[in-house]
Specification:
Blueprint: E1 2-3, E2 8-9, H1 10-16, H2 23-31, E3 35-37, E4 40-41, E5 48-49, E6 54-57, E7 60-63, E8 65-66
Parallel strand pairs: 1-8
Antiparallel strand pairs: 2-5, 3-4, 3-6, 6-7
Length: 67
């Protein structure tokens, strides 16, 4: 995904990529440890993602890119 801002929050990213259907679902998936960022489980939905970060959710992989 390409972003035009310096960063994007993890929950907003998941919604923008249609990996989840709502903010509530994003919150639950993050809290239950289903999301990794750069190879580490991330439990903070407000985690800031920057270009170069790798987000993995199940079998889906997303790389943050600068626009």
């Amino acid at each position: 995904m390409q972003i035009t801002t310096p960063y994007i929050k993890l929950d907003s990213f998941l919604k923008a990529e249609n990996a989840v259907s709502s903010g509530g679902e994003a919150k639950m998936m993050i809290a239950e440890g289903y999301i990794t960022v750069n190879g580490e489980v991330e439990l903070r939905r407000g985690r800031k993602l920057y270009p170069g970060d790798l987000v993995v959710y199940g079998k889906r992989k997303f790389t943050i890119e600068s626009a």
